[in-house]
Amino acid sequence: MINGFTTTERGLVGRVDIMMPTGYHQDVRTTLTLDEDVAAKLKAAVRRSGRPFRDVVNEALRRGLLAAAPASRQPFRAQVRSLGGVRPGVDLGNIGDLLERVEGPRHS
Fold this sequence. Notes:
By secondary structure, the protein is an alpha+beta fold. Among the domains are: 1-28, no CATH class; 31-66, no CATH class. Helix content is 35%, strand content 9%. It contains three helices and four strands. It has helices spanning 36-49, 53-67, 95-103, and strands spanning 6-8, 11-13, 16-17, 20-21. The strands form two sheets. A two-stranded antiparallel ribbon has the order 1-2. It has a two-stranded antiparallel ribbon with strand order 3-4.
C-alpha cells in the first residue's frame, strides 16, 4: 500500500477519501427517521419488487438526487440602454473635476 492506494503489477488501484481507502467505508450504516408516508411507500415498493429494503431505499435516493441536480441555466443577458450621454461641460478625462462635481470641493 502506498499513500492509501493498494499496489498491483499494473500500478495503483483504489481511491483515497480523507486519507482512507474507499474499501474501508463502502457499506455505510446510517439511521434515518422516515416520515410515515415515506416509509409506507418504501415498504410497498419492497413488496412490489421483491427486492431488499436497502436496495429500494438506495435506488429511490439515487433517483431523487439525480432529479434534484441543478438544470443548466441560460446565461444572464443585460438589456443595454443609452443614458443620454455626458452632460455638457463634464470632462470624463478629468477625475478631479468629476470628484468635485459629485462630492463637493472638499473631496480629498
